[in-house]
Write a structure and sequence with these properties.
Layout (H helix, E strand, L loop, with lengths): L15 H10 L4 H7 L5 E10 H14 L2 E4 L1 H4 L5 E9 H11 L6 H13 L14
Antiparallel strand pairs: 1-3, 2-3
Amino acid sequence: MEEKDVRLRRLAVEDTAAAEAAMRAIGTDPRGVAIMREKAVFRVVEVRDVPLRAANLMKQTFLAKGGEAAVSRAAAAFSAERTDVLLMATLAVYRRAIGTMKRQPFGLPVIAAALEKFLWENEPDGRILAKDSE
């Protein structure tokens, strides 16, 4: 096989239903679809005005679970009291991180509950919802 023989196609996978459809289209085993659907959907979520201690724990949690969390330079230098946090992860990582955040101090259980609601409410089968929250 040569490079010219490789056929590629970019897919827009906006939610778990699209991920499932893409996997079914190539003949993925239904058990595999169930396992992988949340790994195929990536979300970037901004959490605004987070206390510094909570932001640092959130960043550590997301890094430990395989995601990413960006904070302001001032927060990283411990020269700010609050920061916005930009979370970047697959749905599978969000699920694991939220589970850990529910057991941590500094208001993280409240943030975890809000994230969980933001990501999973209003979907007919309880799966991801892409929406904005002000």
